[in-house]
Write a structure and sequence with these properties.
The protein has 118 residues and is mainly α. It has helices spanning 2-22, 29-32, 37-47, 69-73, 80-88, 101-113.
């Protein structure tokens, strides 16, 4: 049952993220500029660092069982769209951060920039 839930969750999040990011192609914020890794890093340091290790270095104290951004990026099959989907529909205890489409794309691009496995 857990495996089925994971597969369904993956497709749901990917679909929501794709619709969220590209559903207004040509008209929305995603048409104004590409995702910005540096802006994503700034947002992550301001908002996400209270729970996650957001850089490559494991410095600081975070809550137990909260993955680092590097471990999120290195998950097998990880995509920018799936990360955005998790920002749109976060798992508990992660709060709804109320980020814009572009901010979500920036954070997801930053997380994927930390990928160590190719």
């Amino acid at each position: 049952m857990t495996r089925i839930y994971s597969v369904l969750s993956f497709f749901l999040c990917s679909g929501i993220a794709a619709a969220f990011l590209f559903g207004n192609a040509g008209n929305g914020p995603s048409a104004q500029r590409a995702a910005d890794v540096n802006k994503g890093m700034e947002i992550a340091q301001q908002i996400c660092s209270t729970c996650h290790i957001v850089g490559k270095d494991a410095k600081g104290v975070v809550k137990a069982d909260v993955p680092s951004f590097t471990s999120i990026a290195d998950k097998p099959g990880q995509t920018t769209e799936f990360i955005v989907g998790r920002l749109v529909l976060p798992y508990r205890p992660m709060p709804d951060l109320k980020l814009t489409r572009l901010e979500m794309a920036d954070v997801a691009a930053y997380i994927m920039s930390l990928r160590e496995k190719q």
